[in-house]
Amino acid sequence: ELRNGKNLYFLLYKPIYLLIVAMQDPDMGVKMRNQRLLITVIPHAMTGRDIIDWLIQKYNICEEEALHVGAMLVRYGYVYPLKEPRSLVLRPDESPYRFQVSQPPLHPPAIYLAKKNIRKQGELMEYEKERYSVLHKRINHTWDFVVMQAREQLRASKQRRKADRIVLECQEQAYWLINRPPPGAHNVLDMGLERINNSSRVTLVSDITFLYFLFVKYSEQYLNHDPIMQGCLPSNPWISDDTAHWTMNAEVVPSPTRLRVERWSFSFMELLNDSMGRREFMTYLEKEFSAENLCFWQACEDVRHGENSRIIEKVEDIYKNFLAPGAARWVNIDSKTMDKTLHGIRHPHRFVMDDAQMHIYFLMKKDSYPRYLKSDLYKNMLAKAVVPQETKKR
Amino acid sequence: MACQGLQSGETLASLKKESDSLKKKLEEERGKLNDIELHQVAEKVEMLGALSIKTKRLLKGHGNKVLCMDWCKDKRRLVSSSQDGKVIVWDAFTLNKEHGVTLPCTWVMACAYAPSGCAVACGGLDNKCSVFPLSLDKNENLSAKKKAVAMHTNYVSGCTFTNSDMQLLTSSGDGTCALWDVESGQLLQSFHGHTADVLSLDLAPSETGNTFVSGGSDKKANVWDMRSGQNIQSFESHESDINCVKYYPSGDAFASASDDSTCRFYDLRADREVAVYQKDSVIFGASTVDFSLSGRLLFAGYNDYTINVWDVLKGTRVSVLFGHENRVSRVRVSPDGTALCSASWDNTLRIWA
């Protein structure tokens, strides 16, 4: 069983495959020429400079980015150097490079090791011997076939021209340097853990047109609150080394910042997510004699997110305080939801309060929350909110 | 492994051919309906000015690849985990290492900070996710207080606390996600539906707080109801493994990062993909994504050691962050949006602002 989640064969990485094909195009690809290597002439080679120039032209990018892409191509083995094959860098000069073989050979590590074994008469390095025996065990039944293939390849290579042999050996060496580096060497193709890849099924895509402007609106609303985009006052602590911004926006402060109070008006969730906003809202509800709604909601949250072992105890408390007839803080839920909830709490579970909680949440959101935003309590808070002075960067 | 239940006369090749032609037909039909793309609506939106984002802190201390990190709610502390089993809690502002634990397993791929700031969760090749309380006493041996909460049958790829310290949500190489009660270690709910390793998950920042999204090696992103365990929505448009999923700040959408070298944006209300973030010169897999506070920017970490910054609305790339010397495994914007933290296989973490 072959695990191919992270496969050695670059053909499966479509964007890279497309790039390599484009680079090798006889008309529009990278300029190929015969490269002189010592006393041999290697055909179909290209210079590092030509690769860089081609990338710049093809992708309309700057030299820095082209150098980066080119460096990755060599590091990951799609292109290999003819000079100094052990140094996997892309030099933007006359240094010669070639494409890695595009046909994945059958059981490559096995054949490579078998060939080396035959050639050097059993003189593999220790880690190579280990791998050889592991592979032998794994592909036991095809082992004879692999050895036969290795013998064939060696016989054929003896008959090839010297230039081809040098190229092939450089190729193979680079290929295996990258894909099976000796222990201790940096493995750029270290793929992490292998995963089993299963084929996917076709998915139907629904074709509803909708309003993208909601995303535009959201980003506009939060623009001033996004420090990476607009900066923050008095300064971004990571840039200025001054923690004033954090001090001013601590959970409990005598006077919150204007941006913070403004944010409470963006949505009910924003108000409740800020502990200070939640306290302010509670104060408002107390004035309106409907604070039990927020208390009930908080108690339900506690059930939902708390320990399993305390669910029963908490639900009992909620019933006593909020739902029982004549309860001290009775909440006004519609009769249908109330009946369903009362029935459910006979066998309490984590989600037993969900319906009631949602009912009260939307009651607050639709009714109390909009009125709070129009109230003097909120307006005064906003008016006296602090706008920090910007401090210059160091 | 991949060829289950073939009918007589069918081959894998013929099935693939049929599925490809079906896909093509669907694309044609979609095209006929004249859909507007997100970037077209965003044409009137102001172009973003040049962003000046630089490394402001370099966190050195891990002896091996850093695989994961998570911010504390206090906006300056973070927890990170690495391949050699080390989990470190840092005050990233001062570069001070406040806690260190060594797990008995390697490849700690998941770590998370508890909402209270008093505990961290981590897991990986040990198939478990354990919770450690963070003691104020430096001399206390944290390993002794470790509590194994989640138990999977394969590696743990991701974990997050829900709205409290009491519940933990995990994703695993065993193809499932699971919700656990931290105190008792009890499995509260399990989520089945992925047909391969689940690589990532994220909790929805919604009012009712009942859903989460997961992404996996089966190229799918699934949205789940935490109460019922049901898979309520599924998205499959990536061409390779989905390494990371992250909700848009409003909770109405999410982004994904994939080995197919693209990041994508999905709207949950419309139940479809609405943007693809890709460039011809970006050819290596994307491993991680996160949004800036306003959701306008998408930060994505790649296997070519860079972080690309995308304009979510316009679909264009606005910046590239160079600096790491190996793959970027995780990017996370801090809770108040003041900084981006990136973790890398070069053994370091960087804070960008």
TrEMBL record, chain A:
Query: Could you tell me which CDD domains the record lists for this protein?
Result: DEP_RGS7-like
SUPFAM superfamilies in alphabetical order: Regulator of G-protein signaling, RGS (SSF48097), Transducin (heterotrimeric G protein), gamma chain (SSF48670), Winged helix' DNA-binding domain (SSF46785)
Q: Does the keyword Endoplasmic reticulum apply?
A: no
Q: Which InterPro entries match?
A: DEP_dom, GGL_sf, RGS, RGS6/7/9/11, RGS6/7/9/11_DHEX_sf, RGS_DHEX, RGS_sf, RGS_subdomain_2
Any one Gene Ontology BP term: negative regulation of signal transduction
Q: Which PROSITE patterns match?
A: DEP (PS50186), RGS (PS50132)
Q: Where is the RGS domain?
A: 267-382
What's the domain of life for this entry?
Eukaryota
Official protein name in the record: Regulator of G-protein signaling 11
Q: Which gene encodes it?
A: rgs11
Automatic annotation (TrEMBL), chain B:
WD repeat positions:
59-91, 149-190, 191-234, 235-276, 288-320, 321-353
The record's annotation in InterPro entries points to: G-protein_beta_1-5 (IPR016346), WD40/YVTN_repeat-like_dom_sf (IPR015943), WD40_G-protein_beta-like (IPR001632), WD40_PAC1 (IPR020472), WD40_repeat_CS (IPR019775), WD40_repeat_dom_sf (IPR036322), WD40_rpt (IPR001680)
Q: Does the keyword Coiled coil apply?
A: yes
Q: Name one GO biological process term.
A: signal transduction
The protein's matches in CDD domains, at most eight in alphabetical order, are given as: WD40
Keywords, ordered alphabetically? Coiled coil, Repeat, Transducer, WD repeat
What interactions and quaternary structure are annotated? May interact with RGS9; this interaction stabilizes both proteins and increases RGS9 GTPase-activating protein (GAP) activity, hence accelerating the deactivation of D(2) dopamine receptor-mediated signaling.
Family indicated by similarity: Belongs to the WD repeat G protein beta family.
Report what the protein is called.
Guanine nucleotide binding protein (G protein), beta 5b
Q: Give the species.
A: Dicentrarchus labrax (European seabass)
